[in-house]
Specification:
- The protein has 124 residues and is mostly helical.
- 77% of the residues lie in helices and 0% in strands.
- It contains six helices and no strands.
- The protein is globular and about 45 Å long.
Length: 124
């Protein structure tokens, strides 16, 4: 079950760098709020698959549940509840505002993963 997959790891690193660039340089109304959320679930998925040899479905379900949990914590205003409102890292990682649209972007990211894993990668 434990493994190291350099391809998934390379994609995870690339997506992480893209996410950092989006966070630092992009301040628009589409890429940062929506595309960034689609990419983050793909990033988490690739990171997990870098180290664990597991089937697609359990990993995507875990990533979706994890993402929804973080969003639920935002609904509960967890950053302020834990008195971390002055921590830029906590505000970035946990987020500060709940959005129903974010749940949809996570689902879109999961659909992209499933399509790529089940159809595109299987043909290659």
């Amino acid at each position: 079950m434990l493994t190291f997959n350099k391809n998934y790891f390379a994609v995870a690193i690339l997506l992480f760098l893209i996410e950092v660039l989006i966070a630092v340089f992009v301040h628009d109304s589409f890429v940062r709020p929506y595309l960034g959320d689609v990419l983050v679930v793909i990033l988490i998925y690739c990171f997990i698959k870098s180290f664990l040899k597991l089937p697609v479905l359990p990993v995507v379900l875990f990533v979706l549940a994890f993402s929804f949990t973080i969003e639920f914590f935002q609904y509960l205003n967890i950053v302020n509840t834990l008195h971390l409102e002055n921590s830029k890292i906590a505000r970035t990682v946990l987020g500060t505002s709940f959005s129903w649209i974010d749940l949809l972007t996570y689902i879109i990211g999961i659909i992209i993963i499933i399509v790529v894993e089940k159809y595109w990668l299987k043909k290659g």
